[in-house]
Amino acid sequence: MNNTDKTTVLAKICTINYVEGFDPAALAVDYIDMNTGETRKRLPVMAQMAWFRLKYPEGRFTLNVTAGKDCFVATARVYAHYLNPVDNYLSEATASRGPNPAKPSVSVREWAQTAALGIALRNAGFGLQFSTAGESFDEMAVNEFKQPASFNIKPVNESVAPPVVTPQAAAPSQPAEDPLETAMKVSCPLSKFKGKTLGDLISLDPGALVWIANKYSGDPVISAAAKLICEKSLSDAENQNR
Fold it and tell me: I want to staple 86 with a disulfide (CB 3.0 to 4.6 A). Which of 92, 154, 176, 238 is the partner?
């Protein structure tokens, strides 16, 4: 393949998940390749998430995290629409992370979640034109293949890779929980409602629920859960008014 052909192909790749008026390259950052010393472009996870929201405003993420021996293993799934069935997802990825002495303040759980979500978004086409998308993988990851691969959707606040691990099918006797029910059980991050869930806010303070869905930046998973509840409540209200 000559340089002209390569340029044409790369330009075509840049049209994947095209959103009018949005150029993800503007959000890319430089990083140093630990193997070659070259400066390359990387698209941060937050930029991937923003891009995804522009492309799929009604999309959602699900995250499952389990504690292994000296590490956390996270699995992320990306859905084009919040009402899509559990197994109807665009992509998924699994990542494991253990404590890093060089970064003692980094939450290992959140590190694993972010890694899994970044790779899942890349697998869905959000960042394929960059050298890498998501976090950088300079450090060696814990071997996730020693961990169980079954996928059980849990409340998202208990959960945001290199290889993708294919999960085992859930047993028929243990159907996956409805995404809305999962979102309802997520703990409210506001100290005013300590001990309450996002579902409790529907009756306690709907305005607070809307604020978490649109303004809360502490955890994108909690925001996504609140958004799902708000969208469902709006849909129910519209149906009642018809």
Answer: 176
Is 50:133 a contact under the CB 8 Å cutoff?
Answer: no
pLDDT of residue 84: 92
Given a contact cutoff of 8 angstroms between Cβ atoms, the answer to whether 128 and 16 are in contact is yes
What is the per-residue pLDDT for 216? 83
Radius of gyration of the chain (CA): 19
Last residue of a domain, one of 130, 160, 177: 177
Q: How many CA atoms lie within 13 A of 214 on its CB side?
A: 8
Cα–Cα distances (Å) from 69 to 10, 40, 102, 137, 142, in that order, read 41, 34, 20, 20, 9
pLDDT mean for each 10 residues of the chain (242 residues): 75 89 88 73 88 94 88 93 93 89 78 90 89 53 36 39 46 60 88 88 87 83 86 66 56
Q: Are residues 76 and 186 in the same domain?
A: no
Report the candidate in 96, 90, 105 with the shortest Cα–Cα distance to residue 65: 96
Helices 45-55, 108-123: inter-axial angle, 10-degree rounding: 50
The number of domains in the chain is: 2
Q: Do residues 98 and 215 both lie within one domain? A: no
Q: How far apart are CA 113 and CA 77, in angstroms?
A: 11
